[in-house]
Amino acid sequence: MKLLFVGLEPSKAFQSTVISHGFSCVCLSEFLPEKNKQKCEMVICRIPSIDKIPLLSLVKKRCQDSWVVAVVPAKKLDQPEFYSLLLENESKDGVWAEENWESLFWFSYQQMLEGRNKTQQLKLLRKEVAQFQEKTIELSQSSDRLLDKFKKDVDLAENIQRVLRPRFSPHIPGVSLSVKYIPSVGVGGDYYDIFEFGDKKRFGFLLADSKSHGMAAALLTVLLKLRLEEMKDRFPDSKSFITFVNQEIRAVYNKNSASMSLFYGILDRASLDFHYTSAGNIHPIVWREGKPQSISQRSNPEVGTVDCCEYHENRVSLQPGDLMILFTDGLEMPLKKGKMNAEQRIKELLTVKEQTPDPLRMQNELMGIVDAYTSKKKLRDDLTLIQLAVDEKAMYVAKAEGDQSR
């Protein structure tokens, strides 16, 4: 460590002591900034009078990293003007009395070391803060890019689902259809389709409730739509189509989590037989003559959960005047009343209706409850409601059309 003395000559005993501790001493009668370019750890300046106080600023400017100490006569500290100017000067790191400065050196030396450690720590901390700020800016920019991409993906997914969702339900002679779909915030996980088979006698009812949302739900929608258009006339029953869709989902998603509840039913309007396979938790409610009908149905796992599964098909023989209701999980929260779930609430509402409820009036009442719910809370999931009401003359219409076709 180098010590620079300006206008001050330390005693030989002091020099001998500091040199034995690894210090080197350089003494200058005056400090010339343009000539004195020595790098030192501590500069000790003698300030005998008020006109020498500016010397401290010159030294600090030239030796920015040095510890600058002013050595002043003790009597000068009693002079208000001298003391005030010395106190205001910010270039000094310490002030020693000329009469005993050598004994104060070691104490100030410890102060210098502590100050340097703090300065070094402060530099490191500032560097870390600067690096953190840079990373924060990078993360913010990256987040903005991801958010922009996500919004574009959401818009794309919403457009995909909007285009693929059926705009009109087919006309089924002898049957009244009522369909209501309400999406939740963002890209939903519901998809439905009602279509006519090539034989003009059968109609398919597809209702899906995906556990995933966003692009995953949109891709499942695309898969269902494409496969339905391509394969609907190739499967003799509902369970074979459900089995096929399950295999497709497992293959496309590489056995990652992409499950959905999937309901697929086929209505023969001549016999009013409704064969369906329900994979998951979508089950029909059938209302007949003022009371619910007990349907014996076997449960099936959701599609996309297992590689191989033997799905079981169920059958309902509808009758003129029957009302069949299908709905997804989105209806659960709005219809929840005490311990009653959506199915129990629907049955409660139907008990006060006429024996043959009008599906449109029933839909309006259910949507009124949903509107009251959404005025206070947002839907957590998509809501899809499908009602199929069999007219009193459905069998007659089917037979009459059959006679004309022969």
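(the above was protein one; protein two follows)
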Amino acid sequence: MQTSENKKLSRLDLFSMATGQIIGVGIMTMTGIAIGFTGRSVNIAYLIAGIITIISAIPQIYIGGTANFLGGQYSQIAVLLGKKVAGIYLYIQLFTTLAISMYTLSFADYFLSLFPGVNAKLVCTIVLTVLVLLHLGGVKQAARLQNVLIVVLTVAIAAYIVLGVGSIQPDYFSNGFMTGGAGGFVLASIYLTFAAGGATYVVNYSAEAKNPTKDIPFVIIASTAAVVIVYAIMSTVAAGVLPVEQVANQPLSVSAEAFMPKTVYTFFVVGGAMFALLTTLNFNIGMIVYPMERACKDGWLPAKFAERNNKFGSAHYILLFLYLIGIVPIWIGLDLNTVANSTVILFTVIRGVMCIAATQLPKKLPELWNKSAFHTSNGKLRILCIIGVLLAALSVVILLVSTSMAQIVGNITILIIAVVASLLINKRVDLKVSYTEK
């Protein structure tokens, strides 16, 4: 069942969803670590990180601007790289559903810091139930919630910036700038791409977008640029209100406490973090639906899962599955943090895979590629994709150095499971046409 046009996602809806995905609680911790790398030049490092992120996203923009892939990245990989690679991607994606439980528990932790004594499992159940019910009512309802959450999140960020700018020390550029030299600055810039990334996942909402081939490429660039500029300003405050040694490798709360009134500080640290988690959680619930739905129709997963509700047009069986994946571990007390975090390296690798997929546009979709607003010469396409692969490889190296051994083993284990599952099941998979011109 197709969503009616008036219930599809507008450019503003997509922008709000992508922005909510980018802004996470990582900004609270990653900024301080980057200050430890490069000191007060962290603001410039954020801007460089944004440029790197957008350059890395260009191959994805080429793909998304050529056709409307109904299953998001899953369909893109299936069409451009074949079903075995698509199967591997899908099964890796399924492991990310465990993050729903992790995000919900993190939200409950912040909530309990405001209201101690409340039952954490009850908080988790209420939050996850409300979000899933909204998605059951149609993706437009979830997008409306995202718009509201972004407004509150914006207020929290604005409070930090407005109250903090006046407290920046006058010796900002003369004391504590580029403390780690050129090497530290480069490391900070690449490290902060993990805070700036995430907008490309909005392609998984292609099936619900009003004008996906135009709006999604725009949203990827615009949301990344907007968030990075805000992050650069926030990091200027974070690095400037106190001596560098006091804020290096510290969360944003350390700098916020120096200039915020107590009530505003509580709202920023707890409220801001809570709403950042909610926007990410809301985005992720919806993002996973569309690749899973196409995979069901192709034969990777039970076909029954792909059924949609006649009234709302929502994939109720998939949403029920996501709800159970999120809530059951919470109620039985199972800690899935290590497993949920053990796809970070793999999805960084997938960024490089998407660059390779983009090189196949002239061969696999020649007519649509030639008509694409983003069409370029084969040579330029190849060069930009090679740059994207190299940037992804560099990010993987940083992750391998900074990630725990348990998570590295987790990534390897998940990859092995995904490869074996893909090889075993692909013979009974029949890829359906999963893209349209617009």
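Reviewer note on protein two: Residues 215 and 234 are 28 Å apart (CA to CA).
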